[in-house]
Design a protein that fits this description.
heterodimer, A: about 100 residues, mainly alpha, 5 helices, B: about 200 residues, Rna Polymerase Sigma Factor, Chain: A, Arc Repressor Mutant, subunit A, 10 helices
Amino acid sequence: MTQHDYHNHHDCFHLLNSLSDYVDGELGEELCNEIERHVADCEDCRIFVDTYKKTIYLYHETTAEPEIPSDVRLRLFHRLNLKDFLENSVGEAQE
Amino acid sequence: MNQQDQTEVEFSLEALQNGDQAEFARVVATYSGYIYRLALKMLHNPQDAEDVLQDTFIKAFHALPKFQGQSKVSTWLYRIATNEALMFLRKKRPDTVSVEVPHQNDDEEASRPLQIVDWCCLPEDELVSDEAREQLDRSITQLPESLRLAFVLRDIEGLSTRETAEVLEISETAVKTRLHRARMNLRESLTAYYQGKIPESV
């Protein structure tokens, strides 16, 4: 493993600050090109960008569906005095 | 409520303001899964997440007469839920929770050398093993609360920058800054974890 002191490398530091917008597709074309040119020449930054992207990808990949366990749902509806609507809501959620 | 799968459900504002139980039950059925997931990611404990889930909808029900429909129902619920989660954390650990972004560590954080290890080459089943998933969740809970919220809302719940800004009542620039810092922190944390999984010969 290596460490990279980005604070002392102007181009690398510049890249870091734009990285979030870059991976979200919110960066202008010129800056995107600048990053891509830099990454092609700087192995540390190439690894950094790849692992930064992979981090976000892994969280997306492992995010569960917004489902609620049935016992949790049951207690929620009871607590809210909505148990009369439980049948319908379960059906709706499963659609 | 996720950007990819979200179709904002229409509710009758009038019925909600009048405390119509059937309409409120529809709101609960539609959004309880999202609120529970948010609470689980924030608190990393099913019992605590259930408490926050229940408190969120109790608060929401009592606030219905004042809900003007200026924000989407989902945004309004997320705002209540994030406040409940923060209050829960504060009650549980009163000395350690700061809602504010810890500015005092900015210089230290920015000047810290970053770990450079190419762990992207690891096989997918290693990257998303049960142990790795546990590490992903644990890493979120190690973030300062303000960064954790920005990350969970944007990258887990899939809200846009604008929606996240509305939920947290901060500027879009502040959302972007917090999200970037959260992602940087998580990358460091995952690098520390995954580097131990790389065979020495690689």
